[in-house]
Write a structure and sequence with these properties.
alpha+beta; Jelly Rolls; binds zinc ion; about 140 residues; 5-stranded antiparallel beta sheet
């Protein structure tokens, strides 16, 4: 069995945003040389997510509004976590909803995704460098 590991780095200029990272994950798969197996992609931070869905701007705007209704950023004083001096309690909650990681099957050297499935990095407390882990196992 072969294994491959890589960290992808991101720094979003805004507090929140979504990036389609499917091309980077495909590059990792090509580098790994693995044809049959599994790829795990996970955010290495507790205020960011990796998830799979459609690359459609209306949907991404819907996510932003929906998450902001569930866990509004302001007023920051509404969250106990922010008593520590942080202002990112909402980002922890948003990350929990959108998830930490995805696992995708590798078949014939390709990501075995559904028709509209794309892999996204979801940032909820940006403006600093953060990492995503790509781990691939197989043969
Ligand atoms: Zn925090």
């Amino acid at each position: 069995m072969k294994s491959y590991r890589k960290e992808l780095w991101f720094q979003l200029p805004e507090r929140r945003g979504f990036i389609n990272i499917t091309p980077q994950v495909m590059n990792c798969l090509d580098e790994s040389g693995i044809k049959e197996g599994l790829v795990l992609v996970n955010a290495m931070h507790i205020t960011a997510s990796v998830f799979i869905n459609d690359d459609e701007s209306g949907l991404h705007s819907d996510y932003e509004k929906w998450l902001e209704r569930l866990a509004p950023h302001a007023p920051i004083s509404q969250y106990r976590h922010n008593d520590t001096g942080e202002d990112n309690a909402d980002a922890h909650l948003k990350r929990q909803i959108m998830g930490r990681e995805v696992v995708v099957a590798i078949t014939g050297g390709r990501l075995d995704l559904g028709t509209w499935e794309q892999i996204f990095y979801g940032e909820f407390d940006g403006r600093r460098k953060k990492r995503v882990l790509v781990k691939i196992i197989g043969e």
